Every structure is written in C-alpha cells, then in structure tokens.
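Hi! If you just cloned this repository, the fastest way to understand the data is to look at a raw example. We've pasted two of them here, unedited. The first protein comes first, obviously.
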Amino acid sequence: MALKIGTKAPDFTLSSTGSKKISLSKDFSGKALIIYFYPRDFTPGCTAEACEFRDKFEDFRDLSIPILGISKDNIESHERFKKTYKLPYDLLSDTSGKVCQAYDALIPLIKIPKRISYLLNEDHEIVAAFSEFFEAKKHIENMLKSIKK
C-alpha cells in the first residue's frame, strides 16, 4: 500500500549523488516533485525504470517537476549507477530504511524497498501514487498522466 492521497509527505534529509545532502522541506520548498523508491541499483527492473525516467526527463523538466530516486543502496553504488546510465537526476541513499519505511515503501519481512512512485504538489501533499513491482516503465507513464490531470 502507498501513503494516502492528500496526506503530507514525510520530510527527510538524505545523502545524495553529487556529494550533497538533500532535504525535502529545504531543497524543494514550494516545488512539486516526483519521488520514486526502487529495490536496488543495477537490477534489470530498476535499471529499466531509472532509464525510462532518464528518457522522459525533459518532459518532467518542461513541467518543472524534479525527480528523486531513493533506495537503500549506498552512495558509491548510486554514483556508479548514475554514471553508467547517465541519469540526469539525483539518487538518494537511505541505508537505514527509515525514509522508505516512512513512505510505506518497504516490503515486509525482507525489508527491501518496494517499487513505488509518488507525485507531490507544491505543499508536499501526495497527489498521486503508483505501486507496481513488475511494471517498472508504467511508473513513468502513470506519473506523467497524473501531472497532466
């Protein structure tokens, strides 16, 4: 299950690619954005999803919607993943899983991130969520449709 539409997205500060820390409330204050959670760098489904967000990046940029990817992988893995696939957006490391848990993005028992995408409005309320583990590319399609509504 995803967090409910209309609820305030939990705030966080995480390490990001590019040797920086990103805070939802500070770095994206007053901005709509997409946050997507994914299981692991370099796996087939996660690579397909990341590359699809990359390939549609200009569509999101033209709509002034930044993208953040979050998994439990460490920053070193994220840096390699970002460089290998030329990802134009930041990947955030949640090695503790606390942010994943706050967003209901952890698979119970095995504690790996689910594949779930959230669209947040300018007030960081959840306006759309899509959770489908085996349909990585549909996350991007769903987020674009939700933005254009």
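Ok, and the second one:
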Amino acid sequence: MTAEELGLRVQEVLDELTEAGQREAAEELVRTLMDFYGAGLGRMAALLPAEAFGDELVAGLLVLHDLHPQDVPTRIGHALAAVPGWEVQRFDAESGELTLRQDGEGGGCGCGGAQDGARLEEALACFAPEVTAVELARQPTLLQIGTRPVAEVR
C-alpha cells in the first residue's frame, strides 16, 4: 500500500471505531498505523547516515518494524557499548539466549552489580529485542597460594 492508501485506511478505521465502538476496529487501527509508520520509517532508514543506527530511539523504532539494517550481533555490540565491561561469550539465535562474560576491564570480582544487570537489560531490549535471556558467566575465583607458616619447634 502507498502512504496515501494507508492514510485513507486509517481514516476508515477511525470512522468504524466511532460508529461501532468495537474492539476489532481498534486492533485494526493499531495494525494499520504500524504499517503506516513502518512504511515511512523504511524510507527514512535508507536516508539515514550509518551512525544514526547507534541511537537508542532510532534503533528501537527500526527494530520494532523489522527494518534495522544491522545484524543482531552488531546490535548486541551497540547494547554492550552502553554498559562497558562485558563481552559476548555465546549467542544462540534460535533460542535468543545470550551468555556474557566480563572482558577484564569491568572490575575485580566478576559478579556484576544489580545496576549493571538492569542497564544491560534496558540496552539489549532497545538494540536487540531478539535476546530473550541473558546469563552472566562468572569468572573463576582465584585461589591465593602462599608459603605455609613455619611451625614452631619446641
């Protein structure tokens, strides 16, 4: 459909909704508006410079309409750039499961704070909603080995 046809369809659905007050009409309105916005965003995406795709709002809108020109791993990388200190260990595209590990720059304990977890969740939801689960791989605990104290001789 052209933008004009979509605009006319939106008006038709609004008229139906006003007259009938039916739920189905409201759902059709939402679907039609999504198609309308998606068509416009598709045209705009072709005109955007590459750096615009790193913007959270732009990325979210394009992903919502299946228009993002970057693949999922690239978008996961953008999300991780918002919360430094993590890198991808594994991503299963079929299940949407992502396993992350600290990249060595993110602190000493390897546990990741609750605040980091919330920020990761927000960034991934925006840039890569295909990620359905995140596991934070724990860094192995280092065991300090030293010399034994010398026993006292009596």
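That's it. A detail worth noticing about the second one: The domain at 70-136 is CATH 3.30.300 (GMP Synthetase; Chain A, domain 3).
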